[in-house]
Amino acid sequence: MNLTFIGAGSAFSLESFQSNMLIESRGNRLLVDCGGDARFALNRLGLGAKDIDALYVSHLHADHIGGIEWLCFSRYFTHSSRPELFINNRLAELLWEQSLRGGMASIQERVVGLDDFFAAVHRLPANGIFDFGSVRCQLFSTVHYFDGYELVPSYGLLLDVYPEEFDIASPAARDTAPRRRVMLTTDTQFCPTQLRDFYNSADVIFQDCETSNWKSGIHAHYDDLCTLPDAIRAKMWLYHYSDGKLPDAVAAGFAGFVRQGQTFSF
Ligand SMILES: [Zn+2]
Ligand SMILES: [Zn+2]
To answer: Per-residue pLDDT for 226 more than 80?
Structure first.
């Protein structure tokens, strides 16, 4: 499995593109979030809408969904096949009703819905799991922000990566196969207590990290992440950072900052 950060910056970045990723397994590509920068970020890597086999959506901020109209219209009007969508079931409703519908519900003579733009919409329950190639993807909730008094999570992913040739649908194969666990936090506050078990179980962590000189409160800030235990920082890559000079994360015991376009192979 290859994991490529088509962007590694914050929502406001002008230097590193917004933090969206591409998972490649068995020749298929899963785009993890599709923000407003995605078409430029993919183009930088020689890719376009036609190259996306599936989309995963973590939450509804525009740096994660602002490019979906582009992706869907590009495929709907210019290509015969459509991508699949993997998304929490409650989020699917909100994505369409509160974000996409205004621009996408009406196509000249037709009134369409979310399902018209995807080959399949996989509406996943809380604690949902889906398989993509040789990767088993487990959703988990982060603490991203509060809507008044109600928590609005982002749905992170624990990726259990098996050898490409393994049949991961088989429980027996999964029991015996070697696997590596990759944690993608997506957007999250600094909440080491809530994420502790996931941090401990992961072989590699990709962590939302803001580097602004003020704290937004809805992202984990670098200064707070520096207080994590040594063993956690050593396997933690940082992304979703601000433009400008970055701190020396390696000297601080982290694996480093992810660079835009960087690929990790597992
Ligand atoms: Zn974001
Ligand atoms: Zn967000």
So the answer is: yes
| Contact partners, residue 264, CB within 8 Å, separation at least 6 | 2, 3, 4, 204, 237
* Nearest ligand for residue 218 CA: 2
What the chain holds in terms of domains, given with CATH numbers, is 2-260 (3.60.15.10)
Ligand 1: centre distance to CA 63 (Å): 5
Cα(222)–Cα(249) distance, rounded to whole angstroms? 9
The pLDDT of residue 78 is above 90: no
| 3-class DSSP assignment, residue 184 | strand
The pLDDT of 91-100, averaged and rounded, is 97
What is the rounded distance in angstroms from the CA atom of residue 204 to the CA atom of residue 197?
A: 13
Ligand minimally distant from the alpha carbon of residue 240: 1
* 174 alpha carbon – ligand 2 mean position (Å): 33
The pLDDT, as a whole number, for residue 109 is 79
pLDDT of residue 70: 97
- Taking a 5 Å cut-off on Cβ, the residues next to ion ligand 1 are 11, 63, 187
CA distance 222 to 217: 12
Ligand nearest to the CA of 61: 2
